[in-house]
Specification:
With about 180 residues, this protein is α+β, with helices and mostly antiparallel strands. It has a domain of about 70 residues: Arylsulfatase, C-terminal domain (2-Layer Sandwich). The chain has 4 helices and 6 strands; from the N terminus they run H-H-E-E-H-E-E-E-E-H. Strands 3-4-5-6 form a 4-stranded antiparallel sheet, covered by helices on one side. The protein has a two-stranded antiparallel ribbon with strand order 1-2.
Length: about 180
């Protein structure tokens, strides 16, 4: 899609840092569109969602109970997302509470967000090779690294990422991916 652009995918996500494949805002902040008969809420919302929320939402809107460990005689993993139906029906303003950690890892690039604070760990040359801390309430472009000013906040976020990584059996690769 961006092969003809000399700068590659960078122009796809301004003013954010990086693009798909990265745990930065340029890689994670995306629009979500939904339409169905009876949709109550229209317009935009600042509510955070996650790709893992799509299936619980579709099941909820369809009136189908999510499988509880078994489906059609076989074992299935539980869904980790939440239904967005209350938000879409105008009965809630959020899908996830602000203090709920959002953790992720893709191709060795890691990130975690709690509220407006976000930590990312991206290997060189794309990152600094260690955890960086940003306050998204004032820095959506992730240009002001704050670990020296907020070491306890960085530890809170990286501890949350470590718990998530252990619970999800994350194995970090020993190579660097440009995507």
């Amino acid at each position: 899609m961006y092969g003809w652009v000399p700068t590659g995918p960078a122009p796809a996500a301004p003013p954010f840092r990086y693009y798909k494949g990265f745990p930065t805002e340029g890689g994670t902040r995306v629009p979500f569109f939904i339409s169905y008969k009876g949709l109550k809420r229209t317009g935009t919302t600042p509510a955070r969602g996650h790709v893992s929320d799509i299936m619980p939402t579709l099941l909820d809107l369809s009136g189908i109970k999510a499988p509880d460990g078994r489906f059609e005689g076989r074992e299935v993993s539980p869904m980790t997302g939440r239904s967005m139906q209350p938000l879409l029906a105008g009965k809630a303003d959020t899908v996830h509470p602000a203090n709920e950690p959002f953790a992720e890892e893709l191709f060795g690039k890691s990130g975690v967000r709690i509220g407006t604070m976000k930590a990312v760990n991206i290997r060189k040359p794309y990152g600094n090779g260690g955890w960086q801390l940003f306050d998204l309430s004032v820095d959506l472009a992730e240009t002001h690294d704050l670990p020296a000013q907020h070491p306890a906040e960085l530890k809170r976020l990286t501890d949350a990422w470590d718990r998530w990584a252990a619970a999800n059996n994350v194995i970090l690769p020993d190579w660097n991916s440009g995507y």
